[in-house]
Amino acid sequence: MIRADTAGVGNLGRDLLRVARDAPKVFEQAAQSVARASGTEAKRETTAIYAIKQSRVAEGLTSVAKGSDVITTGKAKGITLQSFGGRQTAKGYAAAVRKGRRKVIRGGFTPTKFAGVPFKREGPARLPIQVLYGPSVASMLRNREVSERFVLRQSIRARDELTRRIFRELKAR
Prior knowledge:
Layout: H1 6-49, H2 54-59, E1 61-66, E2 69-74, E3 78-80, E4 87-88, E5 92-96, E6 102-106, E7 108-109, E8 119-121, E9 129-131, E10 133-136, H3 137-142, H4 144-172
Antiparallel strand pairs: 1-2, 3-10, 4-5, 5-6, 7-8, 8-9
C-alpha cells in the first residue's frame, strides 16, 4: 500500500515536469555519448571481418551527433592493399582483404621508391601502372555483415545510455 499526501504528489508532479523540460538536453547528451562510442564500435565491427588495423579504419571514419541523431560515415577513397597485410611474393603481390582469404595478384609489385605501395602494370609496356586498392572505409561499413552487427550494437548502446541518463535525471530530483 502506498500512501501519498497532497504535498508529496505536488512535489512529484513538479519533479516530473522539470525532468520533462530537460528531456531534449538528456537526449542530446545521450546522442553525443553514443556518437563518441560509435567510432569504436565501427572499428571493432570492421576489423572483425576485414584484415585491417583499427587505427587505419579510424583515419577514414567520422562520427557526429546532430541533435538526437548519430551519423557515422566513412571516406570513399580506397585503402591500398598494403594496409591489408599485403606483401611481395615470387608470384606477385599477396594481400588478405578479408580475414583468412589471402589472394595473390599476379604481376603486382612494390617499388622501393614508393615505400611499399603496391602497383600493377596496365599494359605490356613499363607504363602505365596503377595502385592496387582494397575497399574503402565507406564500402566496408556498407557491407551487410558489418552494418547489421554495427546497427544492432548501436541500438543497444543508445537504449542503455538513454535509460541510464533518464534514471540519473530522476534521481537528481
